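Changelog-adjacent note: as of this version, every example in the card shows the full chain rather than a window. The one below runs 441 residues end to end.
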Amino acid sequence: MVVTLVAALCAVASGQAQAQDVGVAAEDEPLPRGLYVGQLQLHPGLFIEGGYDSNVFFEDDSENPSNATKLNGVIKLGVETPRPKKAQLDLEVGLTYSELFAEEQAIQNQSGVTAFGRGTLLFNPNGSVAVGVFDYFRRTNEAPNTFSSATFNRFSNEAGGILKIQPGGKLLTLDLEGSYAVVRNGIVDDLDHNIVRLGAQGKWKFLPKTAFVLVASQRFINYEQSTRDTVNDNIPEDSLANINSSPLRVEGGLNGLIFTRISATAMIGYGNSFYEDGPSFSGLIGRAEAGYEIGPTSQFRLGYHRNFEDSSFGNYATFHRVFARYNHLIGGIFNLRLEGTYTLRQFAPVANPILLGDVMEEGAPARRYGNSNPDPYERVDPLYGAEAEGTFRVFDIWRVGGRYQLTVNDTDFFSITGQGDLFSPGRFVKHEAYLTTGVEW
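Full-length structure tokens:
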């Protein structure tokens, strides 16, 4: 079915795709490199990646972190119309199979498939009014945050429509979107939910490379179940609640080139999570970013984000995030990327007081959630991250490279599950290092 849908979209966008048209673009052809089917440009890719994961189950370093050797095989396909006329297609699909090698069977069981697909088909893309449809699909293969043979296989699919109003010159544009999404969580199906999303973006390009932007969105999040199952018979079944919400975000600001080598994004606005019950977030949101082109092949970027998100712990979580990123292309064949992030994530209080105090388990008090002073029931997660990646282009389509990623949650929050005998701290340190080789047209 997926193959048939992709083929149909390709045929619509191409209008003249024939088998004999397939081939690699000639060197003197002004179109970008790739494989061509009529008016469509294809970018198939195949990659193999091998490396090491120091902490598969995100466990505290005071325990015995679950390390494994990991082998990934990746297949990708991108499809686009570089010179769209009546229709413009942008499509990307990919599939990754991960095999984990370790002595523990529970770690081996985390092997599996991750897949994604995203596509947009826009009609009359160069006209004053354009309409289109889009679909985003994702299947994840995630390890739980405690030692277990179970694997989280999450499925999400969002489908919707687009209306673009873009008068001649596109100095003033308005984009309207609407979509419906389903999210399914595999073994934790009591977190399954659906999302209706409405969005609008207005843009006024008052300079050739600089624009004023106004963005507004509202989502309607509805859970399939109002409560979550608990494994502890002494905890009431309604102690973990799924609260529906309709979060609203409105932001405005500038985006683009400020000086010859300096670009900036400055957005500020208001957000409200609008939960049907319990606490709701209401306050300022926004982001500020600045980029500096050190030279023609290198750039440094610094940014700050402030926002909120729906959470399965409490109603919501707010976060402050800062990042620094450096990109450098050396000799036209080696691309280096360095990035560091710090995020301070704070969760809303849990609505049901049974989770905030001591509960009786087998005649003895046992705290289900907590942390250290100053507030033993406030959850705050300081998150640190670092990435380094280098890619060397051997030939036009062949690349080799390596990457390293550090993820740290330095929270002192913990939970006690089951009958109080499973102590699960939230903190962890995770190192990942991989070598990659592959081809992509």
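Structural remarks: DSSP finds two helices and 25 strands in the chain.
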